[in-house]
Amino acid sequence: MNIDINCDMGESFGCYSLGSDAAIMPFITSANIACGFHAGDPSVMQATVRLAKQHGVAIGAHPGWPDLQGFGRREMTISPEEAETLVLYQVGALAAFAKAEGVELRHVKPHGALYNQAAIHAALAESVARAVKRFSRDLILVGLAGSVLVESGRAIGLSVANEAFPDRNYNPDGTLMSRKLPGAVLHDPQAVAQNAIRLARDGIRFGERVILPDTLCLHGDNVEALENARLVWVELEQAGVDVRS
């Protein structure tokens, strides 16, 4: 059994210190790098791509709604055409830095509210998938395990990755519990690690289906992010799970 560990990175601005991103990078296999709309800017994007290259971590674009003040976590309603161009624009921006550093862009994972909305709204999911395919058929589209976004990507011929979250709790229908609710985010690293093992082995129930995840996401903005990443890697390998991109 093998699984990828990803983390959202480059979610800073201006005078960029590698800080927690540099500490976490050795314990992940894929990095989702903010593209400037919900977080990040050109200097941060370049620095984060270089950091991922240094550690041999797969690089992905992390497009979000144009919502710096709300960190991309506030829902927006725009036309499918506008959504498609927003995603395409951000993927292209991150890909430029990857190309300049001589590394490939491997995947695209929407951020925040865009991710959650695309998980359940078919028109938006199809817009995101089209944007990814227009840029490159070789990119992997990452989405919530079993969601409409994953199905939309698969339907138009993209490679897809079902994603699960060891540091989050779920609703009974397989969607993520709202961050506004108590207990939505797990903060105990040991609990996060055990949850990672359970998800990798048993999958997640999405409706009537059980979906085995291809990748596990650890949130970089979690206060315990570094210890979560370190312990998840160690505990997965001890449980016989091969961690690789």
Verbal overview:
- The chain has 245 residues and is α/β, with parallel strands linked by helices.
- The chain has a single domain, classed as TIM Barrel (Alpha-Beta Barrel), CATH 3.20.20.
- The chain is built from eight helices and ten strands.
- The protein has a seven-stranded parallel barrel, surrounded by five helices. The protein has a two-stranded antiparallel sheet with strand order 7-8.
- β3, α3 and β4 form a beta-alpha-beta unit.
- α7 crosses α8.
- It is globular, with a radius of gyration of 16 Å.
- The two termini are 13 Å apart.
- The mean pLDDT is 93.
Can you describe this structure in just a few lines?
By secondary structure, the protein is of the alpha/beta class.
State the shape: globular
Strand order of the largest sheet: 1-2-3-4-5-6-9
Mean pLDDT, rounded to whole units? 93
Tell me the helix content.
40-55%
Q: What's the order of the H and E elements?
A: EHEHEHEHHEHEHEEEHE
Summed up, the domain count is 1
CATH superfamily: Glycoside hydrolase/deacetylase
SS-based structural class? Answer: alpha/beta
- Tell me the Rg in angstroms: 16 Å
Low-confidence stretches: none
Supply the CATH class: Alpha Beta
User: What is the CATH topology?
Assistant: TIM Barrel
Number of helices: 8
Specify the biggest β-sheet.
Answer: 7 strands, parallel, barrel
Number of distinct beta strands: 10
Q: Strand content of the residues, in percent?
A: 15-25%
Tell me the CATH architecture. Answer: Alpha-Beta Barrel
